[in-house]
Amino acid sequence: MKKLFYGILIAVNCIFLIPATTFSEKKEVKVMVKNIHYLGHDTFKITGEKVIFTDPFKIKKKDSADIILITHEHYDHCSPEDVKKIQGPNTVIVTTGDCAKKISGNIKIVRPGDKINVSGIEIEAVPAYNTNKQFHTKDKGWVGYIFTANGQRIYIAGDTDYIPEMKTFKNIDIALLPVSGTYVMTAEEAVQAAITINPRIAIPMHYGSIVGDINDAKRFREGLKGKIEVVILNEE
């Protein structure tokens, strides 16, 4: 009788403990991504101590950026008209040399491996290139970025495939990864990239505009189920 009582007690405790843990984890994820706003394609607005935009494209309304990170010179990433919509007199633009020729302002040119500090934000340019297609070749010197904002190390991959250098990206809190295939990783390849990088949270991007759709993002999430937390921003 006593064994039965303790067995029931343990079972009841387990039932009540599981939802508490799940709630805590969901709350932490919500806090981590609350300042990250997905505007489509590879465009994110990250708010906090500084307002950071990545690859502004099809910006719908005027805004003000402290820092703009541009990964390469393709029109859907380096868009002068969209840059102007968010550029102020003190905006710093971090980008590659070929993109810098298309825009004006306070520009910091980077290549893979460069590390700079912009207004207190540590930014590292990392390689981004294709391994099985020719849209973004390694010799172009195009980049992704690892930067620290709101106390979190954020990696935005740019237009890339799953590349060996990802094994060297350490202590990433949030990884923003392309999932649409054609020009970048497929959802399945992005799953492998995420497992290699091992961020606390992965957020899919590069879909719904030029190529890909929400189903790519969902396949990415399904592939990482039970391994890495995936947040699809703006999911209806």
UniProtKB/TrEMBL annotation:
This is Metal-dependent hydrolase. Keywords: Hydrolase. Pfam families: Lactamase_B_3. The keyword Transport does not apply. InterPro entries: Metallo-B-lactamas (IPR001279), RibonucZ/Hydroxyglut_hydro (IPR036866), UPF0173_UPF0282_UlaG_hydrolase (IPR050114). Residues 40-206 form the Metallo-beta-lactamase domain. GO terms for molecular function: hydrolase activity. The keyword Hydrolase applies.
